[in-house]
Design a protein that fits this description.
Structural class: alpha+beta
Number of domains: 1
Helix content: 25-40%
Strand content: 5-15%
Largest sheet: 2 strands, antiparallel
Order of helices and strands: HHHEEEEEEHHH
Distance between the termini: 26 Å
Number of helices: 6
Strand order of the largest sheet: 1-2
Bound molecules: iron/sulfur cluster
C-alpha cells in the first residue's frame, strides 16, 4: 500500500468491549425511540404487545427497557446483551459518544467507567481517531 494512502481508522483502535456489563447496570435504561422499538420487536420476533408487556417500562411517551436484579432485563452475565442486533441506538453507540469530541471531562468519565477503552491513548489521539471514524463511516457501532 502506498504510504500516501492512510489506513481507515478502526473502532478497535479505540475500544474493545470486555462484556463486563457495567453499562447495562442500573435501575433505569436508555430510552427507545420509534426506530429502536420497531428494530427490537423485529429482532425478538414477537408481537408488539408482548414485547411491551414483557420487556418495556412505558411512562407516557417514554419507553425504556425493564430492569431486573439491578440491570437491563436483556443483560445476561454469561452472554452479554441478549438482544444485541435489536438493541437501542444509544447502546450501539456507547462508549464512543460524539460528545467526546468536544468534552474532555466527559471523555474521562466514560474512560473511567468502561474497561474496554484503550487506555494507552491520550485525549487528543483518541479524539482524532474518533473524528476520523465518524467522518469515514455512516454508522459506528461495535
Ligand atoms: S462498560 Fe464498556 S467494556 Fe463493559 S460491557 Fe459496557 S461497553 Fe463493554
Ligand atoms: S439492550 Fe443490551 S446493551 Fe443495551 S442496556 Fe440492555 S443489555 Fe445492555
Amino acid at each position: 500500500m502506498s504510504e500516501s494512502i492512510k489506513e481507515k481508522a478502526k473502532i478497535s483502535d479505540l475500544f474493545e468491549c470486555q462484556k463486563c456489563g457495567h453499562c447495562c447496570h442500573g435501575e433505569t435504561t436508555v430510552s427507545l425511540d420509534a426506530d429502536d422499538q420497531q428494530r427490537m420487536i423485529l429482532s425478538l420476533g414477537m408481537y408488539e404487545e408482548e414485547v411491551r408487556e414483557k420487556y418495556w417500562r412505558v411512562n407516557g411517551s417514554v419507553v425504556q427497557m425493564k430492569t431486573k436484579d439491578g440491570h437491563c432485563i436483556f443483560y445476561n452475565k454469561n452472554i452479554g446483551c441478549m438482544v444485541h442486533t435489536g438493541r437501542p441506538w444509544r447502546c450501539c453507540q456507547w462508549p464512543l459518544h460524539p460528545s467526546i469530541l468536544t468534552d474532555e471531562i466527559n471523555f474521562e468519565t466514560i474512560r473511567n467507567s468502561c474497561p474496554g477503552i484503550n487506555k494507552n491513548l491520550k485525549y487528543e489521539e483518541f479524539r482524532s481517531i474518533l473524528q476520523r471514524i465518524i467522518d469515514e463511516q455512516e454508522e459506528y457501532t461495535y
